[in-house]
Structures are given as structure tokens and as C-alpha cells.
Amino acid sequence: MLTSNATRELSDALRRRCLYHYLDYPDAAREIAIVKSTLPDAESRLVEEAVAFVQRLRKEDLQKTPGSPRRSIGFGPCTS
To answer: SS3 breakdown of the chain: % helix, strand, coil, rounded to 5?
Structure first.
């Protein structure tokens, strides 16, 4: 299994042998559930604000957008 955020160059020979499966980011409700399951003691309002912030960042034209819900989880310790 190979994972890539589309920044790695893969040879044509390797790409021909790959089966591609693209995963989209979770919607806000799903991401909130993921963060709350990882940080059960975090205040709901703070979790919702962190997820909303990360969701907004993903819509910006950034060179590298926040990836997985792990980015939202990273805000948890900062807000407690």
C-alpha cells in the first residue's frame, strides 16, 4: 500500500501497477465525532471551533492544506 498527498513523483512503471483510491476529507460532523472520540474531555465548543477552522483552511488555496482529522485533534491540547 502506498499513500500519497499528490506531492510525490511516482514513476510511470509504478503508477501503471497501482490501483487508485481517493479518500475525501470527512465532513464537519464526522470530523467532530473523530476528535471527540480521541479527546473525550475537550469542551464541545472548542472542538467545534477547531474543526470549523481546519475545514475553512482546507477550502483556501494553500500550498499544503491540513490533511486528516489529526490536524483538528492537534488543537485539542492547546485549547484545554
So the answer is: 50, 0, 50
Grid cell at residue 3: 499513500
Alpha-carbon span 65 to 48, nearest angstrom: 19
Q: Is 6 left (phi over 0), alpha (psi -120 to 50) or beta?
A: left
Q: DSSP assignment, residue 76?
A: H
With CA atoms as reference, report the closest residue to 49 among 76, 24, 77.
Answer: 76
Single-letter amino acid, residue 2: L
- As averages over each run of 10 residues, the pLDDT of the chain (80 residues) reads 71 85 89 92 92 88 68 57
pTM assigned to the model: 0.64
Contact of 38 with 70, CB cutoff 8 Å:
no
